[in-house]
Design goal:
- The complex is a heterodimer.
- Chain A is of the alpha+beta class.
- In chain A, 27% of the residues lie in helices and 28% in strands.
- In chain A, the strands form 11 sheets. A 7-stranded mixed beta sheet of chain A has the order 28-31-32-38-37-36-35, with helices on both faces.
- The longest helix of chain A has 19 residues, at 820-838.
- Chain B has 12 helices and 9 strands.
- Chain B has a 7-stranded mixed beta sheet, sandwiched between helices. A two-stranded antiparallel ribbon of chain B has the order 2-3.
- The relative contact order of chain B is 0.10.
- Classes of the chains: A alpha+beta, B alpha+beta.
- Chains A and B meet through helix 7, helix 8, helix 10, helix 12 and helix 13 of A and helix 5, strand 1, strand 2, helix 6 and helix 7 of B.
- The complex binds zinc ion.
């Protein structure tokens, strides 16, 4: 909302010059501190000098140019005749015009000089509104009123020197979308008198009739859409009457275009009072005006020349011909005032905030009027605002006001709020006292009465529909008393339990991956079906079932991700593109998996009580599963090259190790299995299984080298690898674990045994290892303290299709030195189990 | 070794003759002096002071002498052994010193050579700063609460006192989730702020309640240097008996001190959030120039754009309507809430000029922050 200082000062008696920078800054500070955030302060008119009111004495039409050019004889009031070239044609001899003589300066530092143009010497220029910084009208020069004083300084004559405050009005403060509302706040802040611009209805427009038939006939057919509706008539208006300069300047300062007197008057009063008004061409109206909802199939062409299909919920202004306007939003094109309109019907209504909001969203049509109705308009302003409009049209347009008005209304229950007088004190932590509370509430226009037991009965003013609760009243008191005057209390200790195990685990997991060389990134959480194709996902893959967005940021990505991998792969490719060859990335993030049996709609529950357990369950049923995943991608070297030699290429092993890293951090027991799963290389993919908290085996991760097709589709370096893990499952399983229990440390000697086992190529090492452990565990109290694989051999000696796995086994007993026989027996038990489970053959020698 | 003999004349044990002992000693001292390095000296030590060394053998012969002769022979041999031991020790010290001098030169390496054989991993500053922010509250006794990113509208708006169709909702440019049947609205949205976690906490946790909720949020904002449609927020909520705006200010000041250092003023100005009443935006004095950039002649400040203040958060007293929607008696309990953008905190605290740097996943960005921002 752009508000000129001079306009505000008309109603709030603040002494302040537009040149007083410190005073302007203080006003800006005061506005912001009472909740009207000043986003910018613009000084206007200071950049214009030397423009005076001139008169056109004669016009020579020059020919021979590609457009009409006038050579004008003008007077600057100093008895000397000057000549200026002008390209506009909207003036006649005798008109008073703004004249920029040589030496003047126009906005933007544009200096005017005498120069030769179109074969003549031009001693200055006649200005258009745009050239004077008043709006954007370039189409013609500005023709001034005949009584404009010849030779006067135009800037002071037109009141151009001003300061414009641009205020960011929050959605609760409808009253602040008006000079009236902001001036009232200023008057409170400066403790100066406030004059309400919405004064009583002037006698010239009052009449005997203030009812359904006082003026043009109207009625409210749907009281849920409208509770006040006023029509007034002004007859015989001169359609070509110009908008007074002062009004045009203020409209321009406020960012409104000047259209015609009738439209300008309605806009001017909307800005001044906050009441949207509409002007109809009476000649185009057919029968009584009705406020009603739309009927099936109805259409309306609005003044922006869009034909709109109406919805049964739309609140309409209609006459016998059908819809003529979207109430409080935009009028129809057929009844708008035109260049030939002389009889004008002025409408001032009060429409349902919610109804207007829904309508303007439905039609994607936000207007100055709808912005005000959505935020709440004064319910008692319609007669006064329309009366002022009628009076102004009559005054400036030469029309005749039809006395009286048509006034249709629906009774509105007045709001009264009972509030404990000490409530604002308890909210703020400040002892304001009842007197201050009462005075502040009266400042904003409330009527305040005392009731028993220190309770106040407060009726908010008609222009503050946002005040409905004691909390709203408390806010009024506290903001006017100043947030800066609230003390700072020492923090109360709350006695929390710290981070949960899950939260600590997540941090530990992130650190573990980072210490392994992975760099954490965040990637785009949106997805597309094309991504799923690039991942080579089968048609029935669960990851293809995704949450779909109604209004995605990009039409290319209308889904929420079901896997972290595409985003990570794109980030990998971006880093490679930026010249990094060794790239190890990880991300933690939610993925979104609609539940196959999920509800299709989350109900909007009531808010006047807490929801029941079953209502909450209804909400949850409509939400997708949102597990937290950890993903990694890697390419290039896992260990960098350097002066020590070449790097160690990253591969499937590092991806699987990343999964192990996460699981080790969690302490959850896991096993690695061979797997086939997209988008991984079919021969180089591992599944990681854990037992969940209910003891069921569950795959929590896949890892390995990516499928060559996937690598190609995402433009990744060859042999890029990836891992994706469901952290939510791991966290839940870890949660179920008790504290880790320590083992006694035996100080008896260790006995080391090496065994080499030959198994078929297809036998996973993990299976051999687990068999060795199982076997060793059967050998009494001889503890297999550690087992490590120190060699994998696939040469001739292993035999065709076989490999040799060589392990070191470390045995120790808790209470004695093991004998050679005991060690051999334990080793043999381990080997025997491996032989039984995997068909291994002990390699001799 | 000779057999013990109480009647032998000492001179009959040749090895113990004075000149023999002298010779043994002289040989040993010569060998010690001739040892060129520690290894040679070790061999000399074995040869001339070890178990089979002449002096050791001579010593053993003492027992073969008649008692009267033992003392003198013992004295003689003892003196020789002492001389040999001393010579060994001093030669040992000499050679060790020499070795130390030589080793310093011969075995010196360039210890400044790099050995970064593990890739440099890092965590994202939005993660680590988010943790830091949460920790500040956890240290004040808050607990960390989390909630879903795809959220029911009721949690995201209605329960937070955003009436249906209220223009307040327009300020949160919402991304809506389509129904499985393709319906444009399904009562489900991508959460536009972390405030729905407030509702979830109020509905499930006992009172009094002090929680902080970090998390990802979504709006249809256009991506530019300071706005991202996907961003992270952190929000604290306290609901207890008798909480006031003065307590809110206390929490804000404690937070600013923990994040940006002591002595920075904070400022509240009226704002509007449907879920708090009164509501305010929070600014703190610029932690870099501390307002100096606004004084005449002050150096311009990039961080606060020479405003002296930096807007950091929104806050307010929990609207009693929110408590009612969660089944909490607003006559008994009051609360405050306080929320800020994590990316914005990263930008302010670490001088990140463009929010897009936090999103693109460029290795250099996270790496520059290491493990903890
Ligand atoms: Zn600064």
């Amino acid at each position: 909302m752009r508000l000129p200082l001079s306009w505000l000062q008309e109603y709030a008696a603040v002494e302040l010059s537009a040149d007083d920078d410190a005073g302007v800054a203080e006003m800006s500070w005061r506005l912001t501190n009472c909740g009207l955030e000043v986003e910018s302060v613009e000084t206007v008119g200071h950049d214009i000098t030397g423009v005076i009111v001139g008169e056109v004495l004669g016009i020579e039409e020059l020919t021979g140019f590609n457009k009409p050019i006038r050579y004008c004889h003008v007077s600057a009031g100093d008895g000397q005749e000057r000549h200026v070239i002008c390209g506009a044609g909207n003036f006649v001899v005798g008109d008073r015009v703004p004249l920029a003589l040589p030496g003047s300066v126009l906005p933007g530092g544009f200096e005017i000089g005498a120069r030769k143009i179109y074969g003549r010497v031009s001693e200055g220029m006649i200005c258009s509104p745009a050239e004077l910084g008043i709006g954007d009208d370039h189409t013609g020069i500005m023709v001034l009123a005949p009584d404009a004083p010849l030779g006067a300084d135009f800037v002071s004559y037109a009141g151009l020197r001003d300061v414009v405050f641009d205020i960011n009005v929050t959605p609760d403060k409808g009253f602040a979308l008006s000079v009236r509302g902001v001036a009232r706040e200023l008057a409170i802040s400066y403790a100066v008198p406030f004059t309400d611009p919405a004064g009583p209805v002037p006698s010239a427009v009052t009449g005997a009739g203030e009812g359904p038939g006082g003026a043009y006939p109207a009625r409210i057919e749907d009281p849920t859409g409208c509770d006040r509706f006023v029509l007034r008539e002004v007859l015989g208006v001169d359609p070509s009457a110009p908008t007074p300069l002062a009004m045009a300047v203020r409209l321009a300062r406020s960012g409104q275009r000047s259209v015609s007197l009738a439209v300008d008057v309605t806009n001017y009063l909307m800005l001044e009072l906050g009441q949207p008004l509409h002007a109809y061409d009476k000649a185009q109206l057919v029968g009584a005006v009705v406020v009603r909802r739309a009927r099936p199939g109805e259409k309306l062409e609005t003044i922006d020349h869009v034909v709109r299909e109406l919805d049964a919920e739309d609140i309409l202004i209609a006459d016998d011909s059908g819809p003529i306007g979207l109430a409080g939003t935009m009028g129809g094109v057929h009844t708008e005032v035109s260049e030939s309109t002389s009889d004008v019907v002025i409408e001032a209504g009060h429409f349902s905030a919610r109804g207007v909001a829904r309508m303007s969203r439905r039609h994607r049509l936000g207007s100055e009027a709808s912005a005000r109705f959505e935020r709440g308009v004064d319910t008692e302003l319609q007669r006064r605002a329309s009366a002022r409009a009628a009076a102004m049209l009559a005054e400036h347009g030469g029309g005749r006001v039809v006395p009286g008005c048509t006034y249709a209304s629906v009774p509105v229950e007045p709001i009264t709020i009972t509030m404990d007088a000490g409530y604002p004190d308890r909210v703020a932590g400040v002892a304001y006292g009842t007197d201050t509370v009462t005075a502040r509430l009266r400042d904003v226009g409330c009527t305040v009465a005392s009731a028993s037991g220190d309770r106040l009965i407060v009726s908010p003013p008609s222009w503050r529909p946002d005040i409905t609760d004691p909390a709203d009243l408390a806010e009024e008191v506290i903001r006017l008393e100043g947030y800066q005057n609230i003390p700072v209390h020492a923090v109360r200790a709350a006695g929390g339990r710290g981070l949960t195990g899950r939260q600590r685990l997540r941090r530990a997991t992130g650190r573990a991956l980072a210490y392994q060389g992975f760099v954490e990134v965040t990637t785009d959480p949106f997805a597309s079906a094309a991504d799923f194709d690039r991942l080579q996902l089968p048609a029935d893959d669960a990851r293809r079932l995704a949450v779909r967005l109604s209004n995605p940021l990009s039409d290319d990505e209308p889904l929420m991700r079901t896997t972290l991998l595409p985003g990570l792969m794109r980030t990998l490719a971006r880093n490679v593109g930026r010249g990094f060859s060794d790239v190890l990335l990880f991300e933690f993030g939610l993925v979104f998996r609609p539940r196959p049996d999920g509800a299709s709609f989350a109900p909007i529950l009531p808010v006047d009580r807490s929801p029941s357990a079953s209502e909450i369950a209804q909400l949850e049923a409509a939400l997708p599963d949102q597990p937290l995943h950890a993903g990694v991608v890697l390419a290039g070297n896992a260990a960098p090259a350097g002066w020590w030699g070449p790097g160690r290429p990253a591969g499937w092993q590092d991806a699987i190790e990343a999964a192990r890293t996460v699981l080790r951090a969690s302490r959850v027991r896991f096993a690695i299995r061979t797997a086939h799963y997209e988008p991984w290389h079919p021969g180089r993919c591992a599944a990681v299984v854990v037992q969940d908290c209910e003891g069921r085996e569950q795959v929590v991760a896949h890892a390995g080298e990516l499928h060559p097709r996937v690598i190609a589709a995402f433009g990744l370096p060859v042999r890029s690898a990836a891992m994706e893990l469901d952290l939510s499952v791991v966290e839940a399983a870890a949660d179920a674990l008790g504290p880790r229990q320590a083992r006694p440390l035996s100080s008896y000697p260790v006995a080391v045994q090496d065994v080499a086992l030959i198994v078929a190529q297809a036998v996973p090492a993990a299976k051999v290892e687990s068999a060795l452990r199982v076997g060793a565990a059967q050998a009494g109290d001889v503890l297999l303290e550690d087992l490590s694989l120190f060699d994998v051999y696939t040469g001739d000696q292993a035999g065709e299709g076989h490999k040799s796995l060589a392990y070191t086994l470390r045995f120790r007993a808790p209470d004695r030195t093991l004998t050679a026989e005991e060690v051999a027996a334990a080793r043999d038990a381990a080997v025997a189990e491996a032989v039984r489970q995997t068909g291994a053959v002990l390699r001799s020698g | 070794m000779s057999a013990p003999n109480n009647t032998y004349d000492p001179v009959e044990v040749a090895a113990l003759a004075p000149d023999a002992v002298q010779r043994i000693q002289a040989d040993a001292l010569a060998a010690i002096a001739a040892a060129a390095d520690l290894d040679q000296l070790k061999a000399v030590r074995i040869a001339h002071a070890g178990d089979r060394a002449p002096i050791t053998l001579a010593n053993a012969e003492i027992g073969a002498l008649p008692p009267a002769a033992r003392a003198e022979a013992g004295k003689r041999v003892g003196a020789a052994r002492g001389a040999i031991r001393q010579a060994l020790a001093s030669r040992q010290a000499e050679l060790e010193e020499e070795r130390d001098r030589r080793v310093l030169v011969d075995e010196a390496v360039d210890v400044t050579l790099p050995w970064d054989r593990t890739a440099a991993g890092a965590r994202h500053p939005v993660t680590t700063v988010g943790e830091h922010l949460a920790d500040v509250f956890v240290d004040m006794g808050y607990e960390v609460a989390e909630g879903p990113e795809v959220e029911a509208e009721w949690y995201n708006f209605d329960a937070l006192n955003f009436p249906p169709d209220h223009p307040a909702r327009d300020q949160y440019d919402t991304i809506f989730v389509a129904g499985p049947d393709g319906a444009e609205r399904s009562g489900v949205v991508l959460r536009t702020h972390t405030s729905p976690v407030q509702i979830r906490a109020l509905l499930t946790r006992p009172l009094p309640l002090y929680v902080v909720s970090p998390g990802k949020c979504y709006r249809t904002d256009t991506l530019d240097a300071t706005h991202s449609p996907v961003f992270n927020q952190i929000e604290c909520l306290a609901v207890d008996e008798g909480l006031t705006m003065a307590d809110l200010r206390g929490a804000i000041d404690a937070f600013v001190t923990a994040m940006f250092g002591a002595g920075l003023q904070t400022r509240l100005r009226p704002d509007y959030f449907p879920f708090t009443e009164p509501s305010a935006d929070v600014s703190m004095q610029c932690h870099v120039c501390r307002g100096a950039s606004t004084r005449p002649g002050g150096q311009p400040c990039r961080v606060c754009r020479s405003q002296g203040w930096i807007e950091i958060a929104g806050c307010g007293m929990v609207n009693p309507r929110v408590l009612v929607a969660c089944g909490i008696d607003p006559e008994r309990y009051s609360g405050f809430a306080f929320g800020l953008g994590i990316e914005r905190s990263v930008m302010i605290r670490h001088g990140v000029a463009d929010i897009r740097d936090t999103l693109e996943g460029d290795l250099r960005f996270s790496r520059a922050f290491g493990m903890e921002a």
